[in-house]
Amino acid sequence: MVTGNTVIDALLLARRMLEQKRAASARPDPGPEVVNDAPMVLVTLHRRENLRADRLAQVEEALVRLSVEEGCRVVFPAHPNPALSGLVQRLRGRHPNLQVIAPQTYVDFIGLLEDASMILSDSGGVQEEAAFLGKLVLIMRDSTERPEVLGAGTGQLVGTDAGTILAAVREILPGLRAGGPSTRGTLAFGTGGAAEMIVRHLMEQETSGLPGGDNVRQ
After folding, report:
1. Which intervals hold domain UDP-N-acetylglucosamine 2-epimerase (predicted)?
2. Is the dihedral of CA 194, 114, 85, 173 positive or negative?
3. How many C-beta atoms surround the C-beta of residue 150 within 10 A?
4. Looking at the domain that runs over 31-177, which CATH code has it been given?
């Protein structure tokens, strides 16, 4: 039985909660300051293999050059891992286009995903969420456990080499500046409702006495 991934359930719930939050607030949180109308690159970084000094130096170079040379609006919600503190300190105030912000709640982060023109990330979950939203993810890894994003064209492996990252962004920037989307969305991870389908299936097993019913009751 194929249900899709429950991450899409969470994403859709977060979108509804974000809409309610904005509707209920007389002064909704504007999010990071919009300093220009340049394409927004949302960045997340946290994987252990990327916390080496040499890789962090490459990522730092890429983010600075994206903001300075390409004029991109780079938004980086900084992960609280102490191994990133040096990078965060060096990037703060480096350039008006480069915005290092506090870690976000899940709901607010989904809002940033929706606003982003493209994503630069080493996160697996972000690959799935961005794919559903139709946002291209430049994956700062050498491989991914989500081959669906590569097959659908919503993800591209770039590693942490600054030159490779810049080349990938430069390839897509003309289309973004012309008003086009970074990619088409994919339903490879489901359409929502996966949790409900899983519960319904397990309940049917329990009531019908099929194998696995005893495990459901435990």
Report:
1. 2-202
2. positive
3. 15
4. 3.40.50.2000
